[in-house]
Amino acid sequence: MMQSVDIAIIGGGMVGLSLAAAFKDSELRIAVIEAYEPDEVLHELPDTRVSALSRASENILRNLGAWQGIEQRRAAPYQAMEVWEQDSFARIEFNANHLLQQDLGHIVENRVIQLALLEQVKQQSNVALYMSDQCQNMVMGESEAWLTLQSGKSLTAKLVVGADGANSWLRQQQDIPLTHWDYGHSALVANIKTTEPHNGVARQIFTPQGPLAFLPLNDPHMSSIVWSTDPNRADALVKMSAEAFAKNLTVEFDNKLGLCELVGERAAFPLKMRYARDFVTERVALVGDAAHTIHPLAGQGVNLGLLDAASLAEEVLMLWHDGEDIGLKRNLRGYERWRKAEAAKMIAAMQGFKDLFAGNNPAKKLIRGIGMKLAGQLPGAKDEIMKRALGLKGNLPELARAVTK
What we know:
single chain, about 400 residues, alpha+beta, eight-stranded mixed beta sheet, 12 helices, about 35% helix, about 30% strand, globular
């Protein structure tokens, strides 16, 4: 039997479920298609894949009703941030109190965010979930797209949204070209116990081998690390003994929190920049990693994706209320211009930041040191950096601006 919906969202991760939840008060009929249903049981040891949620993302998740579910499960607020360069005087610190904020953000496991959103979406009468299922085929008609799922079920939709990650099936089906480059690094992720408490401070050190971030978790002695380094070195670090790994990590982190101890598994994945040439085609829109991936330097990837979801929902709801076709490319151009511009800015900023801290040239190190010192001392400069990182500035969708009662 053929099921007709207004929007089919391919991908039921954080971004896809946020988009579905954003239509909670509408008459739009939504289908969410996701290959894997997340395990609802949280283990004592946090997952290694975490996100640093900005204030804008927190606002989105609060407005979608998912924040309470996140807090009930597990979320670690951080009140300060320290960034410095190894063997240099380059250093800058940020503090929530200085910005009259309770915190600078939250470190949350990706699965916790997904589960809290899924909890909300399951309560929506206008959403049909196709979990543990995936798209096998898509045919474009004049006024709708026809989807065939692996289970044999069929759907028609006025708009198909790709929220299916960096290797997006939908993007490939549409032959949307990518601008892409390899950062030449892999990101190693793991949970680490330290002898010294983290005190709710997120820390990042730039070393000649690449940046290393310690993100504070609920346990005062536990952090999630993101260690960006040469792929061969990352591979060697994953394979070496836990003791040798901990010793290498302690040295690389300048012994900042005392001795490190590996807790649980390690994993490494290659870092690539991807930027889809088109965020929309006829009957198709891309959000999140399907549209763009960036270096995890400032942990902005998921925040960009959640803003994509909130922005697309805003544009689609306006079209729907005006009686317009929500799947026409020309009607979705506003979303594309809006989010392409924001993604391009973030990609350029991350590349500039990465290039600035690449290399050991003494003159370059001096410039880095002076630049960070000035950013810390110039009136308003530090505030501007943090307000942008928090998502308190820029062209924001309504869901990200303020929490509605």
